[in-house]
Amino acid sequence: MPEILRIRGFRFFFFSREGQEPRHVHVEQAERYAKFWLEPIELVESRGFRSAELSELHSLIAEHCDEFIVAWDEHFSQ
Questions:
Q1: What is the model's pLDDT at position 2?
Q2: Closest C-alpha among 56, 33, 53, 28 to residue 45
Q3: Do 42 and 21 touch, CB atoms closer than 8 A?
Q4: What's the CA gap between 24 and 41, in Å, rounded?
Q5: What values do phi and psi take at 15, rounded to 5?
Q6: Which partner for 13 in 3, 24, 33, 61 could form a disulfide, CB atoms 3.0-4.6 Å apart?
Q7: What gap in Å lies between CA 37 and CA 42, rounded to an integer?
Q8: Residue 68, class by beta-carbon neighbours within 10 Å (0-12 exposed, 13-18 middle, 19+ buried)?
Q9: H or E element: which one contains 11?
Q10: CB within 8 Å of 32: residues ≥ 6 apart
Q11: Rounded to whole angstroms, how far apart are CA atoms 72 and 76?
């Protein structure tokens, strides 16, 4: 489960065996979870996050999207 970024208490990661799905990132904080596609950035699934937090996550993903894509491509091209 490669972790890509930890910021503001959020942990951004993907699972090692997800290469068949479009590029995406998972986010956890305590017992809360969300999954976002990266191109375009779109919420796929969420449990426990409020709408304001999901907006914050969307902004953080937009800010770090290139980093997430590079990490995804490096991991799944191996």
A1: 87
A2: 33
A3: no
A4: 8
A5: -90, 145
A6: 3
A7: 5
A8: buried
A9: strand 10-13
A10: 47, 48, 49, 53
A11: 6
